[in-house]
Amino acid sequence: MSGAGKATALQRAVLWALGLLERYRYIKFGIVGASGTVVNLTMLHIGHEYIFNHIEAAYNKPYISLAVAISLATLNNFTWNRLWTWSDRVKTLEQEESPGPVSLRLLATEFGQYATASAFGSGLQYVLTLLLSGSMDYRVANIIAILAASVSNFLANDRWTFKRHKE
User: Which sign, positive or negative, has the C-alpha torsion 143, 144, 149, 152?
Assistant: First the structure.
């Protein structure tokens, strides 16, 4: 097979994979969640080691850095889930009460719902990890809890934050 034939086959495979992603919203949600994990870990490190070092060094715990990291990761995930995962359900300008850019009120409402759903999922992850770690390795318990929380977060956002609009 020639180089051009391989490129065409590769292009078809990539297009097929992208089409698969478009059909499976939960996979897109997982990819966004992975990007949020990167944002979270990066900001946690930068905050604890550099920005808040003089404040947090006395406590040896990343209290402020962790709060900032979680907040920025939540904002990252909300933004990408709104723009990509549920882009087909985001209100359009015609659905808004007034023409022009999307209102800050709508964004604030959606973000509040998203943050609430995320907080519930985080709490679920915490409780499940503690409960399950009594009968299995805490790392396995945490993985199971993360998966359960991600399903919870996905369903809450799918049915509440980015619910289908009535035609």
Answer: positive
Residue 161 in contact with residue 115, Cβ under 8 Å?
A: no
The answer to whether 25 touches 80, Cβ cutoff 8 Å, is no
Q: What is the spatial distance between Cα 62 and Cα 135, in angstroms, rounded to a whole number?
A: 29
Inform me whether the pLDDT recorded for 136 exceeds 70. Answer: yes
User: And the tokens for 77?
Assistant: 């995930």
Residue 11 has pLDDT above 80, yes or no: yes
95 touches 165 (CB < 8 A): yes
Report pTM: 0.75
Helical H runs in 24-160? 25-46, 53-56, 63-80, 104-132, 138-156
Tokens 């199971």 found at: 144
* pLDDT of 36 strictly over 60: yes
Judge whether 117 and 151 are in contact, CB under 8 Å: no
